């Protein structure tokens, strides 16, 4: 089985993507390859940040790599938190960031939001980009205890439950990351 590096230290994301690629690729994360550097995400878009991470691994470890940058974009907040989703409050703390969003959304009737992921795959010295989007609504309060990040306040369109109320299998069927990863997998199968 071929190995691919996923440029992340987030064990939840590694597990989520590992499940999607099971049987086709062994997914390694940064810890697995001994990379302890916090790769700077200095880009102004999801695509730029994903590419910074994947190209860093290729340049420094000579391994094929993919990386994603994902975030929650809320219409009423001018697409915030966007690329700052993981550190919206100024720190990387899921509960603090989620509570800041709920605070800013207090009394707001427009609850439209979307999760967006861009995956950058560096393979054979070329960069390929894949995007996934899922639209939904921001709940009034956190619901559910599965998932991570903003999952407890995001209710995907067509559902009456939050991402945090879904099993990983259910979420993997419809999530923004799953959509982008399916595009990546389809591309890898064509190679």
Automatic annotation (TrEMBL):
Task: Tell me which SUPFAM superfamilies the record gives.
Answer: ITPase-like
- The reply on keyword Nucleotide-binding is yes
Q: Where does Mg(2+) bind?
A: 69
Q: Which reaction does it catalyse?
A: ITP + H2O = IMP + diphosphate + H(+); XTP + H2O = XMP + diphosphate + H(+); dITP + H2O = dIMP + diphosphate + H(+)
Chain coiled-coil ranges:
none
Q: Active site: which residues?
A: 69
Cofactor(s) recorded for this entry are: Mg(2+)
Residues holding substrate:
8-13, 70, 148-151, 171, 176-177
The EC designation for this entry is 3.6.1.66
Keywords, comma-separated and alphabetical: Hydrolase, Magnesium, Metal-binding, Nucleotide metabolism, Nucleotide-binding
For this chain's record, the cofactor binding note is: Binds 1 Mg(2+) ion per subunit.
What Pfam families does the record point to?
A: Ham1p_like
**Enzyme type, top EC level:** hydrolase
Q: Which PANTHER family match?
A: INOSINE TRIPHOSPHATE PYROPHOSPHATASE (PTHR11067:SF9), INOSINE TRIPHOSPHATE PYROPHOSPHATASE/HAM1 PROTEIN (PTHR11067)
Q: What function is annotated for this protein?
A: Pyrophosphatase that catalyzes the hydrolysis of nucleoside triphosphates to their monophosphate derivatives, with a high preference for the non-canonical purine nucleotides XTP (xanthosine triphosphate), dITP (deoxyinosine triphosphate) and ITP. Seems to function as a house-cleaning enzyme that removes non-canonical purine nucleotides from the nucleotide pool, thus preventing their incorporation into DNA/RNA and avoiding chromosomal lesions.
By its UniProt entry, which HAMAP family does this protein fall under? Non_canon_purine_NTPase
Q: Which NCBIfam families match?
A: RdgB/HAM1 family non-canonical purine NTP pyrophosphatase
**Subunit structure of this chain's protein:** Homodimer.
Similarity field: Belongs to the HAM1 NTPase family.
**What is the designated name of this protein?**
dITP/XTP pyrophosphatase
Tell me what organism the protein belongs to. Answer: Pedobacter gandavensis
Lineage of origin = Bacteria, Pseudomonadati, Bacteroidota, Sphingobacteriia, Sphingobacteriales
Gene for this chain: rdgB
């Amino acid at each position: 089985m071929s190995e691919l590096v996923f440029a992340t230290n987030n064990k939840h994301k590694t597990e989520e993507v590992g499940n999607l690629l099971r049987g086709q690729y062994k997914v390694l994360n940064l810890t697995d390859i001994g990379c302890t550097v916090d790769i700077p995400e200095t880009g102004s878009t999801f695509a730029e940040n994903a590419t910074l991470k994947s190209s860093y691994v290729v340049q420094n470890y000579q391994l094929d790599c993919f990386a994603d940058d994902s975030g929650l974009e809320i219409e009423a907040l001018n697409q915030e938190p966007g690329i700052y989703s993981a550190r919206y409050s100024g720190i990387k703390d899921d509960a603090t960031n989620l509570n800041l969003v709920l605070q800013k959304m207090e009394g707001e009737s427009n609850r439209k939001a979307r999760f967006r992921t861009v995956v950058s795959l560096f393979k054979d010295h070329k960069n390929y980009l894949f995007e996934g989007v899922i639209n939904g609504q921001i709940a009034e309060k956190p619901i559910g205890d599965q998932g991570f990040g903003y999952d407890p306040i995001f209710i995907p369109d067509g559902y009456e439950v939050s991402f945090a109320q879904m099993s990983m299998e259910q979420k993997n069927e419809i999530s923004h990351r799953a959509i982008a990863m399916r595009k990546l997998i389809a591309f890898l199968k064509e190679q």
